[in-house]
Amino acid sequence: MKWLQGKVIGQTEWHPGLFSIFIEAPPISFQAGQFVQLSLNSQEKHFRPYSLLNAPDDPVIEIYYTLVKQGLFTPALASLSTNSPIWVSAKASGRFVLDEVSQSNNLWCFATGTGLGPFLSILKTSEPWQRFKKIILVHSVRYHHELTHQSFIESWQEKYPEQFRWCGVVTREQVAHTLNNRIPMLLQTRELENTVACELSLQDAVMLCGNPSMVSDVTQILLQRGMRLNQAKEKGQITIESYWKNKIEVQKK
């Protein structure tokens, strides 16, 4: 693997254990929604895949991640200070991009936790706003303080009031103006669709990123509704970020 040496130019701790790290590095060519590998040394002993949250034309890399206190990687990542060296893979990867999504009426984006990252990258570009009648972004978290990056959400709500719908989901506490259940149940009961005033139809596209159980459960519901998985050999309506299951951090023994 070819690596580019960059440096940390800042970190934001949204709340304890939830971070964005900002990296200055040589330019990387990528499509919104793709991911890169990060390494803390040039020997490639430990590296992990992370989605790029920044748009392709933004020279500053933003990575959104959760600290795993007993993990092998994120404690060291969280300890990096400004000007610390960090290595980024020279090539981005992944098919979680709009080029892989068939022409559709509406785009539904389902994220849990830091799975929000690639959707923010995608929505920072002009393409989705030109292609889809409506864009529905659903972000599920455990607690309300995990609903981060609200400045982007609010800017899109203001700029595209008829086109953009955001639905916050908080599963472990009751919070005003959010839903309080797992995404699969909200789909089964149609509460989600009623809340955003939009029906999820077979003419729509769905993108899923986050907790593997959410991705699996939502996929099964959508398959039962007649949707198909979007695969290399056969186009469908459901596009999945498949690297996520390999991203779960190994715990120290």
Beta percentage is 25-35%
Q: Examine the secondary-structure arrangement and name the CATH architecture of the largest domain.
A: 3-Layer(aba) Sandwich
Question: Which stretches are poorly predicted, pLDDT < 50 over at least 5 residues?
Answer: 248-253
Q: And the CATH topology of the largest domain? A: Rossmann fold
Overview of this protein structure:
There is one protein chain. By secondary structure, this protein is an alpha/beta fold. It has 2 domains: 3-89, Translation factors (Elongation Factor Tu (Ef-tu), domain 3, Beta Barrel); 98-245, Nucleotide-binding domain of ferredoxin-NADP reductase (FNR) module (Rossmann fold, 3-Layer(aba) Sandwich), CATH 3.40.50. Helices cover 23% and strands 28% of the residues. The protein contains 8 helices and 11 strands. Strand 3 (35-39) and strand 4 form a beta hairpin. It is globular and about 50 Å long. The two termini are 28 Å apart. Residues 248-253 have low confidence and may be disordered.
